[in-house]
Design a protein that fits this description.
- The chain contains 14 helices and ten strands.
- It is an alpha+beta fold.
- The radius of gyration is 21 Å and the shape is globular.
- A hairpin with a 3-residue loop joins β8 and β9.
- The strands form two sheets. It has an eight-stranded antiparallel barrel.
């Protein structure tokens, strides 16, 4: 790797270390109370509350839930790269996408593709039906539709819509509580009790049961794109080489680096391994388009030069459906490594 990972974003520098630490604590557990935050940060509850309110407004922070989609019975995650040969009507596309529970996030981009979609479904037949139906409905725009299955999540998560939770194979009372926590993961037991017309003690019992069930990975944060910043995304298809594992190890240095111990938001919110039309998806957050291109596109090509990658890129324009996955977690601990090669001795077992 070349030098240069010490880069720190200007939007990090806009926030004090206190509020950046608070963002880390809330990204890793959004139900951390103001009292707990004040003790961890060594400031008064009034101070942290006022500073946090400003950051929430600046960054469009929402408190949500990171689910184990597989535990909810949602086993068909796909990421779809979309290009239109004819000028699309995005209002109509939003209507088409929002009419189904399957698409969770749709982002418009400027680059070699026009949009990407994250989708999941309960059954493969439901996913395939939606996939083909959507392509037919978009065909008048000359749609080029390139789906890939999500094989492995190295970093990040996709916030899901409540419509997807409704389709999970779990009791209705659990769905209703999960939807409330998905909308606001800091919601108090008292408020949940009122919303569900359920006794406080029953709410507490069901909450603890759901946490232990494995449905919930964590209560976390979902923020908007900071002002004066650029988000670059890439889909890549490569030719596997004997150097792939070594090159992947180099890439992890880049993707785990944030320029500071406590960024207000992670530099790389999403790093995925895919199977299908693409092998990799990466999303990077930087100050401007040139810096984003250098880190997300150019450095990727340099690291994986042995694999001769074909890279499609798209700069985020706006979110059409769903929520972005921006937050601040410890990427050194969070990065989920997977090794694809098999030792010869393993084949003899």
């Amino acid at each position: 790797m070349e030098e240069g990972n010490a880069y720190q974003s200007s939007f990090d520098q806009e926030y004090s270390i206190m509020i950046r630490k608070a963002m880390r604590y809330l990204s890793e557990d959004a139900r951390t109370s103001i009292l707990e935050l004040s003790k961890k940060l060594g400031v008064s509850r009034r101070t942290i509350r006022s500073k946090l309110l400003k950051a929430e407004a600046d960054l469009g922070i929402r408190y949500t839930t990171e689910f184990s989609e597989s535990m909810l019975g949602l086993s068909n995650p796909h990421l779809i790269r979309v290009k239109f040969r004819n000028k699309p009507n995005y209002s109509e596309i939003l209507r088409i996408l929002s009419s189904s529970y399957i698409p969770q996030l749709a982002v418009l981009t400027k680059g070699t593709y026009d949009m990407f979609i994250y989708a999941n479904a309960v059954t493969s037949s439901e996913y395939v039906h939606w996939d083909k139906r959507t392509q037919i409905m978009l065909s008048k725009y000359g749609v080029l539709w390139n789906p890939s299955g999500v094989a492995h999540m190295h970093l990040g998560f996709f916030p899901i819509r409540n419509e997807l939770i409704d389709r999970a194979n779990i009791p209705n009372k659990d769905k209703e509580m999960l939807k409330l926590l998905n909308t606001n993961s800091r919601m108090s037991f008292s408020e949940i009790s009122k919303r569900l017309n359920m006794h406080f003690n029953t709410v507490a019992y069901n909450f603890n049961r759901l946490v232990k069930s494995g449905y919930i990975k964590r209560f976390t944060v979902s923020a908007d794109v900071p002002r004066n910043s650029a988000v670059m995304t890439i889909f890549s298809k490569y030719n596997m080489s004997e150097h792939y594992e070594e090159d992947s190890a180099k890439s992890r240095i880049e993707y785990k680096e944030n320029g500071t111990e406590y960024p207000i938001l992670n530099r790389y919110p999403i790093v995925l391994q895919l199977v299908g039309s693409s092998d990799v998806f990466i999303m990077g957050l930087f100050d401007d388009e040139d810096t984003a291109y250098d880190h997300v596109v150019s450095r990727y090509k340099k690291i994986f030069s042995n694999e001769r990658p074909k890279v499609e890129r798209g700069k985020l324009d706006r979110v059409l459906l769903g929520r972005l996955p921006f937050r601040s977690v410890d990427t050194e601990k969070e990065y989920n490594v997977i090794k694809w090669t098999v030792d010869k001795t393993d084949l003899l077992q």
